[in-house]
Amino acid sequence: MGAMTLPGVSFANSDLWSIGSAEVAERDKDMPLIGLEEHFATPEMMQLNNIKFPPGVPSFDIMDVGEGRVAHMDEAGLNVMVLSALTPGAQLLPGQQGIDYATRLNDQIRTDYIDAHSDRFRGFAALPLTSPEAAAVELERCVNELGFVGTMTYGAVNGMFLDHPDFEPVLTMAETLGVPIYIHPGWASKEAMDLYYDDLGDPIVSRVLSGAGYGWHQEVALQCLRVIVSGVFDRHPNLQIIIGHMGEALPFYYWRIGDDLAKVTKGKLQKPVQSYVTDNFHITTSAFFRTELLELALTVMGEDRVLFSTDYPFVSGIEGAEWFRGVDLPRPVKEKIGYKNAEKLLNISL
Predict the structure, then answer these.
(1) How many domains does the chain have?
(2) Is residue 163 flagged as an active site residue?
(3) Of 74, 101, 120, 187, which one has the fewest beta carbons inside 10 Å?
(4) For position 3, what pLDDT does the model report?
(5) What is the CATH number of the domain that holds 47?
(6) What is the domain extent for residue 148?
């Protein structure tokens, strides 16, 4: 792979699994890091959403939001985690059940986790998206009363993505508050499972293929494009969206998206489709610790819209930090990705 061309940035060739230059890693060993996609679960969350993990998943204890997690952060050199509920959080629970659970869960994030480690944890709100008006009210409470820095959503809600008119109250509230929405993947619907995955003869393979193995990344990319082409950002020009996993393949498709969708949206949207990608989206490195993918992300998004994350506890925060510290980028660029972009976007400081 040849070196990329980006002002002030130069990538050396690297092996796929290389953690980079030891010299650069030593130079940057003291650099602060903020992680934006860092999950947790509770027994109640697992029970309400009927979640059962296969053996060995996740890699670390997802219910430990205390000393064990902090010790892992210390070893990784990860200063702050923005905590988010395991997929699907509170968003699929119906009616008052979802509203009540979201309130309990967000209060728990604040009182049990953030207050216990106020210098290490921040929070993304869990929202009862089956009740969008109530979800907007809960987002306002979480930001203004609990000090949360945004919200995380997870795939479709009753067959609807965030471009659906029902979710306008949530989008309006996020824009008004000046906080981002992190769109995380959600599990495939029964219809999608039936069409694409369930005829493979191995339910475990089908489940993984529909999820982290491929499918849910594509669904996030599709949701993002729906949000763009439906005119959400023309109505909410200051709304900011975060997506993980090095952009959920959007950087890879960026030029094809621009070429094809530009032809059918010209005159219908206020800007070219590609402009919304680079004006209204931020991407994180969560679970995709690959230098060549970071190169592509920086080429498309620029150094102000790429942010470090790990996807703990499904992958090792230590592995992610070691990889990033070894990436051969100028120190000022790495500081932006490592923590400064997050400080600016989330209005926090280390």
Answers:
(1) 1
(2) no
(3) 74
(4) 33
(5) 3.20.20.140
(6) 22-346
